[in-house]
Predict the 3D structure of the following.
Amino acid sequence: MSRASLIRPLEWTIRPAAVRVWTERVDHDRSTRVWGAIRAVANGDESSPSLLHAVTACAQVLFAAGAGLALTSSNGMLEPLLATDAEIGELDELQFSLGEGPSGDAISTGAPVLETDLAGLDAGRRWPAFSAAVAGRGVHGVFAFPVAAGAARLGVLSVYRRQAGPLRTDQLQDALVFADAMLVLALDHRRGVSADLDEVIEAAFTARRAEVHQAAGRLAAQEAIGVTDALALLRAHAYSSGRPLHRVAADVMAGTLKLESDSSPPAGPTDPKELGPDHAEKEQEED
Amino acid sequence: MSATDRRVREVFIELSDTLVDDFDIIEFLDRLAARCSELLGVSACGILLADHHGVLNLVAASTEQARLVELTQLQNSEGPCLDAFSTGHPVQHPDLREAQDRWPRFTAAAVGAGYLSVQALPMRLRDTVVGAVNLFSKSTGQLDADTITLGQALADAATIGIVHQRAMARQEIVTEQLQTALNSRVLIEQAKGFLTHSLSIDVDEAFVVLRSYARANNRRLTHVADDVVQGRLAMSALRSVTPG
């Protein structure tokens, strides 16, 4: 069995809410405090509170390495859109590439997923590829909170911590309020989507997401397969080569990487061109 | 008052539970109509609810006769329920046999159905009136003040539930718009990538092709993009709008 075949399908099944949205029970003082933290970050920027300020404040309050926001698109795919820094962005992208991780589970169950030790046995069984990759990067705690309005699950707020161990009860409650704040910042009651979210989507696509989907479209045309299968091909290659998905996509669009569907499996990690140490260094510099 | 305190409490708890996944407004108001008849000691109860355009509709009635009387109000645009809705205040009449001048057609229908007095209560939350509750009695005379207070409290509880439920539903629509924004962006990028291969052009040119084709055919960009990635659009049709 090739390593790539370990990858799970990308579409998480959406089940009816098993748990009523927790944020309905949020107390007022906590909400004031959380919005205060978001405003404090915004004031440092001399601007009004935005989604980026919210993920930043969330990471600070929870003593986390960083936090990210991914939104569900069609078929329950989680589009990584916003992160406190490039490293966290790659972790969110990794969940998308692998099709496994706490974010997808949080969306499919509608409840928070709290992983206190990614190097532990439970995490290894639950998300074998994701937990190995992330623990290898020195991140041991991942906490995923659905961003939801009633039954509609909009996305996931993911919090990454270097240290293993649980969040304290008050941190957990804060995180739920942060997830609720994301919703408030993403929506505009007159226009639907807030100007801030429009900008976040635009920035994410300009930076890397556009190429991922372009490459899927290009592969679909080239191999005469569906875009979902084409995306799976890209993800499989990213996984087996150990490279970020958006780099693989960029190479496909530049014509420097040729991928072919099933008849010949995607190039494995043995391909020296893909795994050279100089390559890895170059990618770090670019980010 | 004909109801026990315990029963009243139970009904209020029942009416507050509108934030459930399978909430059904008709079923909810049907229950309200039945509970009003039960707790207020009236002969029948009918409920009119305004839709999103502000037009009143009959949504519940505890008896078939009350249903017909309520429909008469709507058809003739006259009656205590409509007055309570338009003014936002309670409207009552202790003897409908003497109300021909005020509501001639409604009075005829109500008396014909055996109802001799009426009390209408607005379903109001602050400035918003969402509907009205009509209480019919087969005897003449006014309802006592306690009964009216309880009736108004039931209507208020139901109103809060309805307004809250509608706000949630609106939020879900907004959420859908949000996902559409993301999905259309994904689709357009996929279509651009698709065309770079099929038409041997670069991504910027691919976008120009998509946009030109959508404009020339008066179609939405995302629909054209969807057709492209699903293979429903012949490349020859797109080639005709390819630049250069």
Summary: The first helix of chain A runs from residue 28 to 44. Chain A touches chain B at residues 16-17, 24, 71-74, 79, 149-152, 154, 186-187, 189, 192-193, 197-198, 201, 205, 209-222, 227, 253 (CB under 8 Å).
